[in-house]
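Appendix B. Raw example, untouched.
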Amino acid sequence: MAARKPTLLCIAAGLCLAAFVRAESFDAQFETIQKTATREQLYAFLWALPKGGDLHNHLGGAFLAGQLYDAAIDPKRTNGNEFYTRTLINNCPDSTEPLILYRNIQRSTYEKLSDCRKKEYQKLAGLSARAKADWISSLVLDREGKGRNEFFEVRGERVGELTNDPWLVTDMLVQTMKNYSAEGLRYLETQAGAAAFRDHDGRPIDPERGVAMYREALARPDAKATGMTVRFLRTIIRFSPDAPEMIEQAYQFVAAHRDLWVGINMAGREDNGKGYPLRLLETFRKMRRTYSNIPLSLHGGELDQPGPEVRQTLLLGATRIGHGINLITDPDTMLLMQNGRYLVEINLISNRLLEYVPDLSKHPFPEYLRTGIPVCLNQDDPGAWDSNITDEYFTAVTLFHLTWSEIVQMGRDSLRYSFVEPAVKKRLLEEYAEAVAQFGRKYGDGSWAQKLAGVRPEFSGYAARNFAFRGQ
């Protein structure tokens, strides 16, 4: 297929977007591929697809459980720390822990337990093959019965002190960058902080040291080799009693670390009694009187009931909405968001497994996409789903028959609506444009099937359980 190099067109805001000027559109070719490819071929095509950014991502929830296990038992990757996991419940008289198995603690915590409570725990590195499999499964929503409450109320307790270890977290950040790079992702805007880190004795680590450890990890040769650009959002737990104070701390932190932390997010269950947005409106207004150019990407409308949550979240100052499931029940806000200022961060697999949209064929995503509301596909907590970004694309393409233009527009918008600094955003958009053009040239003729034979996607556990590929 004949093609010309991308041309740059600048919008009024000064941001240059890549426009793919082609002698023939790839839409028709992609339509042919969709109609004639096997499901495995389509998955391979979407695995190889150049992708933009993941804008809705919780770093601690992004770690794949098997990879997290391997890192947590490797003293080189934990800087000598060791972890223990609960494999027995003894009902010890001094126990104050929730009655759940596979809760993880570090060595210094284990050493302070009573003899009775120590018997409940095993060294993580010493688990049998069966116990290791159960440990991995305990962190994944991999079967019926594991849903919203399992995720919000139990999984975090199980992860426990693993994500308080900065050596483990920053090492797993690099591993996650490798995973995403293999799928063609080029930008990650993940929710992460540095205030909860503890040393091997359980003492708090100065957040500035935590920031330095993130910088050191991103400077590693293997991190740079991924080609990924990473930025962070500081997260507020919306229903926390001290949420107003957390907001003030978040603004102060982001203002002091703008080269890596590019915005603020607000997470947590909206159906919690104190999860509603407007209780925090005055605090956000107070912060805007003090700080400039700190954007907000806030969870909004992650509910399975009608409501004004998205409208209220926009009123807090958000320009990106995470999930936005019940936006479709608010026609006036739907019309408002068609003006192109706001983007909805779509998380299909998360919404299904957390039972907000059990039947994804009824998800409002295509209505947003096709009525002019900017959207992009994201992973949310792929470690809990045992999934990857290709699973999101495969789900969207097979359920909603996306066109090539829609796929490319979502990739472009995932970069356009990112909070990364303008010069880097311009570079990412240009690189994405060129990568898409090259991809179109590669698969634009009748030999696309032969070329896909050389693509080796890594099927996720979610794909194996849900997409019924042959041999899975």
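End of appendix B.
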